[in-house]
Each structure stands twice: as C-alpha cells, then as structure tokens.
From TrEMBL:
PANTHER family, per database record: MEMBRANE PROTEIN, MEMBRANE PROTEIN-RELATED
This protein's record includes keyword Transmembrane helix: yes
Protein's UniProt name: YibE/F-like protein
Classification via InterPro entries: YibE_F
Domain of life according to the entry: Bacteria
Length: 234
C-alpha cells in the first residue's frame, strides 16, 4: 500500500480504495448471495458489472469505458459456460470442494463456482486492455483533432495487438504456474496426451486459459470501435 501511494499519488490512493470496496463486495455481498442458493454465475456477472463500474468511476471518474470491459467479461463467461458443458466439467476438483461437500450443510453448484472463478480471474486483464486501448485513442484525437474515424480504430487495433501478445502469455503462464506440481506428476507418470486431456483437474485450467484469452482478444476490437465512436462524438 505504501509503494502504491508513493508512486501513484492520488491515483494510488483511489486504486487502494477501489480494491477495498471490491473486497467488501466479494465478502459481504457476493459470497452471501451464493450461500443463499442464488445462481453462482448470475450473481458473479451482476457483481462484476458493479465492480467494473466502481473501479472505473473511482479511478477515472464517470466514463463509458466500463461498457467495453463488461462486454468482454460477459463474453468470457459465455465461453466458459459453453466449454464447461461440452467438456462435462463438474467443478469438484480441489480439496476445498471436498471440504465443502463434507462440512457445508447446503447444496452447492460447483460448476457455477468454477465459472465464477473464471470470470473473476479474467476481469482484471480485460479492464487493463480496455483502459490501455481507449487511452491511446483519446490521446491520438487530442494530439490531432482531424484524425479520421477509421484511423482511430486502426491505431487502437495495432496497440491492442501488442498488448494482446503479452497479456495472453501472462494469462497462460499464470495458470501454468498454478499447476506446476501437477505437471511434474504427469511427467513422472508418463501419461499419454489423450489421457491427460480427459482429466478434469487439467482440463479446467485449459478452459480457464482459453476463456480468458478469447475474452481478452475480443475486447480489443470492441474497445477500439466504442472508444473511436466516443471520441468522435466528443
């Protein structure tokens, strides 16, 4: 927190405030709603929209940029649901799930919890890409008021491609890092690829990576178009 405030100044303070508000939303509202039996995925989408709006408003003031981040996140959620259904994912793959089955006196939708985790995991990256692309387009318009609409979109896409190249790697490497012990186990067991791809404990990470990456990629053109329309109207 000290480093964030030292280097970020007011923006750093607002960032910490935003993080605190997000923590309160997750602990005091989102989790209790899931425990009460509401659909995990529906609750997550609603609160993610709220989180995106709060984050952007606190850090940048009221802006329409959040619309694109919301769309990208929902796309990732839809993809997660499709892939999960196609792969017959149960969501019961961890010690935490075993603990809940044993001790939680309630019916839990583990598949919905998994989907919620995918959405929450991708939201930060989608917001970052949306913000970076939009800021570039606004700055271009500020520097040259006569720049054309198509040129703005093209510039946004070019910048987005560079961001995409690193962000996709970040997503994949983050998920690979979380399952390193598992990868070592697979290596020593010398299991064939076909068997590995039929193990839910590995497939869920692949689906998580795919959904995050595709949601991220689709956010770039959406951001470029919406931001160009916004700056053109302005």
């Amino acid at each position: 927190m000290f480093c964030i405030v030292l280097f970020g100044g007011l923006k750093g303070i607002l960032s910490i405030t935003s993080l605190g508000v997000i923590g309160i939303i997750l602990v005091k509202f989102m989790i209790p709603f899931i425990i009460k039996g509401y659909s995990s995925i529906s609750v997550t989408i609603i609160f993610i929209i709220i989180i995106i709006l709060i984050s952007f408003i606190l850090i940048l003031g009221f802006t329409k940029k959040s619309f694109v981040a919301i769309v990208g996140t929902i796309i990732a959620g839809i993809l997660a649901q499709i892939f999960t259904e196609l792969c017959s994912i149960t969501g019961i793959i961890s010690k935490e799930a075993d603990f809940l089955i044993t001790y939680a006196d309630m019916a839990i939708d583990f598949k919905g919890l998994y989907l919620s985790g995918v959405l929450i995991g991708v939201i930060g990256v989608v917001m970052d890409v949306s913000m970076s692309t939009t800021s570039v387009i606004f700055e271009l318009k500020c520097q040259n008021s006569r720049v054309s609409f198509m040129r703005l979109i093209g510039s946004g896409l070019e910048v987005g491609k560079d961001i995409m190249a690193t962000m996709v790697n970040i997503l994949i490497l983050a998920y690979v890092g979380s399952v390193m012990p598992l990868l070592l186990v697979f290596h020593f067991l010398k299991m064939p690829i076909g068997s590995l791809l039929n193990m839910e404990i590995l497939v869920v990470e692949i689906i998580r990576s795919l959904c995050g990456s595709i949601g991220l990629i689709l956010t770039i053109p959406l951001t470029s178009i919406v931001a160009s329309i916004m700056v053109k109207n302005k």
